[in-house]
């Protein structure tokens, strides 16, 4: 075989490999997007606003400070550690 034919075959094999890999990555990313709970059908990220129970500010859920309530096993969201600590101290005073 001529060296030019070997080079052409090598290039074609490389391009086929790249196409297969890119198709595999697209399928993997699509599956990951489908399993994510904060994405919409078109792949856009959707963030939910939650209200801080202390200062009543609206905070994006992904950025909020989380605290799992001991009594009800629900998650309470706060705008900052300061509000979280105030909530904990108020819960302690009520008991």
From TrEMBL:
Annotated transmembrane regions: 6-21
Keywords, in A-Z order: Membrane, Transmembrane, Transmembrane helix
Membrane recorded as keyword: yes
Superkingdom per UniProt: Bacteria
UniProt name for this protein: TRASH domain-containing protein
Species in which this protein is naturally found: Desulfotalea psychrophila
């Amino acid at each position: 075989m001529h060296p030019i034919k070997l080079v052409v075959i090598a290039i074609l094999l490389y391009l086929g490999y790249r196409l297969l890999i890119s198709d595999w990555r697209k399928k993997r990313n699509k599956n990951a997007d489908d399993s994510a709970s904060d994405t919409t059908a078109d792949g856009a990220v959707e963030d939910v606003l939650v209200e801080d129970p202390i200062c009543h500010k609206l905070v994006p859920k992904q950025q909020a400070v989380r605290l799992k309530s001991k009594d009800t096993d629900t998650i309470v969201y706060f705008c900052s550690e300061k509000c979280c600590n105030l909530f904990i101290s108020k819960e302690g005073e009520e008991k």
